[in-house]
Amino acid sequence: xxxxxxxxxxxxxxxxxxxxxxxxxxxxxxxxxxxxxxxxxxxxxxxxxxxxxxxxxxxxxxxxxxxxxxxxxxxxxxxxxxxxxxxxxxxxxxxxxxxxxxxxxxxxxxxxxxxxxxxxxxxxxxxxxxxxxxxxxxxxxxxxxxxxxxxxxxxxxxxxxxxxxxxxxxxxxxxxxxxxxxxxxxxxxxxxxxxxxxxxxxxxxxxxxxxxxxxxxxxxxxxxxxxxxxxxxxxxxxxxxxxxxxxxxxxxxxxxxxxxxxxxxxxxxxxxxxxxxxxxxxxxxxxxxxxxxxxxxxxxxxxxxxxxxxxxxxxxxxxxxxxxxxxxxxxxxxxxxxxxxxxxxxxxxxxxxxxxxxxxxxxxxxxxxxxxxxxxxxxxxxxxxxxxxxxxxxxxxxxxxxxxxxxxxxxxxxxxxxxxxxxxxxxxxxxxxxxxxxxxxxxxxxxxxxxxxxxxxxxxxxxxxxxxxxxxxxxxxxxxxxxxxxxxxxxxxxxxxxxxxxxxxxxxxxxxxxxxxxxxxxxxxxxxxxxxxxxxxxxxxxxxxxxxxxxxxxxx
Length: 556
Fold this sequence. Notes:
This protein is of the alpha+beta class. It folds into five domains: 1-87, no CATH class; 91-124 and 127-236, no CATH class; 303-431, no CATH class; 434-469; 487-544. 58% of the residues lie in helices and 9% in strands. Strands 1, 2, 3, 4 and 6 form a five-stranded antiparallel beta sheet that branches. It has a four-stranded mixed beta sheet with strand order 5-10-9-7. Helix 13 packs antiparallel against helix 18 (387-406) and helix 17 packs antiparallel against helix 18.
């Protein structure tokens, strides 16, 4: 089978999968009433079968499922719960293939690089597998090696998904609302970044620096001389999974404080440093023998721009204080308003949601559910939420699981509330620092110095009747293009009408030139008019389309 035929067959298989679950409510979002009542709507279909079919499509779709688990606006709760259990543990490839990848990437045989290299992997996932090794100086390391030829498979699947998403955005109502193509584009960037182990090594270094304020948390250091785009060598950390810590270990080590340190550290990562590690599930965290918490597998990290980071902070801060309308305003500011956006309904629903959240105390509250419900309400009311909001919700959901395992009695709402107060205090202190104040004063000084001259110039132009307002780009705009189309069609219509009238008048004139018993010139003019008329109708049917719904981004 040729490459093109193989690609078409793969695309057809993906389409069959998507269409199979289209009727079950997947990829359609939820109605607002079910969200407001706090109950999941009844969904037909089998979520576990959905996940099984997703995994059968291969590594791209295992990651696709993990990404879908961050989109409560697209996927019903029953399917979200199933997607959280997406298995990323598959049969390993042979040790010979792994050694070949290491030699190809690092240019040296593993036997020359490492004193020992364990052919049995510590773990095997859809994109890579990890092996234990020992350096020549005796240090134990973990070597993460990308599966051979996985890159070509990923790129082909991503191209197929992008093509399907683009067509869905044009042909479906839900596509026009949520923009599947944009989401697939973000998924492509995240997945390709996860496959670049240089990026993951940089993430390890950056997180090590940021977590220095939290000595309870350990991030293994990468070894740059033994790493490349497809091979990552890092310090080996060992211990117990946070969900498998035994009672004896708990009596010897007080690990309850690890939960608060982890939560506070992750809030700093997002709100201060702008990094969302979207995959802090229990499998990526180990309680070490000395009582510290080790964090690894930092391939899935998304950077949040400063302004979006500020809005996330203000949204969370308003939510924990019970200011629902302020939280809704921040969500609107960081989202895109669709043409049918119902602002009053949105403010009311989010206000009620935040009020319920603020009224509950202790373990009955869930910050992740709050964010997920805000995303669902946004979609139902015609507001497209940014991916960062869903990613933060997923991160908090994983952290809730880890924190409950470390300290079952921990009050996450109280910890989040106190830490947000601390972050706010730090921001105020930085805003009043001498350097920041001096910078603001210099800007005010420049404004005060330039304002009188600019005002004088404007008044002079106004007095001389020379004040002009120039609008550029109109000649290249879509408006001018559409006006030209209208003018062309009107002109064509006039020509068609003139030809028909002229042909009808000439039909009465007797001439020697006959065609099918009619005056030849009159018949030719009539046929030209008919051809032009058919051309205009066909053009209108094929090329004319409804204007895209007007979308408006929030203030920046």
